[in-house]
Fold this sequence. Notes:
mainly alpha
Amino acid sequence: MVTGRLHRRRLAWVAGVLLVATAAMLWMAAHRVPHPGSPVAAHLAALRGLWPASLRRPAVVVAALALVVAVDAVFVVLIATGRGRRLALPARASLGALAALVILQGLHQTEHLVQVTQLLVTGGNADLSQGVLTRLNQELVHLVWTSAVWIGCAALLLRYRHNRWLWVAFAIAGIHDVEHIYLYTVSLDPAVALHGGVNGILATGGLLGGPLQRPYLHFLYNLLEFVPLVAALLDELAARTRGAQRAPRPLRMRSASA
């Protein structure tokens, strides 16, 4: 457990980063609206319009939410009752897994940062803002990675049940996964995808809609996972350092001189 003072400092740092990022994404949503680069493509997109929510597979959202809640409930029971302790990785392996998750999510966040930067530079041209690994910018890849982060957080909580930041990342990753389950499912039906399904649930034009277009919303989704994961790792490293400092030192026997 971290000290109260250290926790408050960590909370202020996390809140500051997220507030600045949210303000930046809101500015981008207002001044760099993503659009197809080709005038013909833009015209076709405008003609398609948005289908009513009832035609965009809302049942998929309900099913995805039920799945995520059910899996979450299983892990919460395992963690709360202590039964999951037997399934947890050893302490050193858990710390290594947490560090690896932070690094990989950081790389994923960097890809989203590149896309947002490209949208800024190109004035919102979505065709020229596909990131670095353009071939991996597919719905199945997004779903697999988001699910891996979600389940990874759950598995780490079996060891670090008192890490509040890891609980935050776990909760956000579950919500994020609902989005990607929906996005992958509707991508299998091009008609639904082209008439609004590609926007997902909470993005502008999505089932529920919101102030942020999809690239900016998912930048924040990933940041809301990445920053708490960093804080969780820092907490565990601090706890490990304090534990090492408190460990009793072995007594050294002096040999008597002849």
